[in-house]
Amino acid sequence: MARVIFSIKYDIIPEKRDEYLDVIRELKNLVKAEGLDSYSVFESKNKSNHFEEVYIFGSNEAYEEFDDNEDERVDILMTKLSDMIKQQSTHYSTLFEVGE
Prior knowledge:
alpha+beta, four-stranded antiparallel β-sheet, 3 helices
């Protein structure tokens, strides 16, 4: 069963950094789903306030079903996040494991 990596890269508004980190800490405790192997957030070593969220799914099916999971608190936090991200700095990537 091939795994899937979904990532989101973006820059946040510098003045919102502390609030962003608080939201991410809470999200890391809440983002759980069947087939989601891990959820991590990284900051770029060379570019301050540039972050990447990385979701690793155990299968394509788990990836496809992920948006179907409803969690009101997660939705609220995601909305807060979107208000902290610089406009037009978001880039999405989906990778499918080969050789499986």
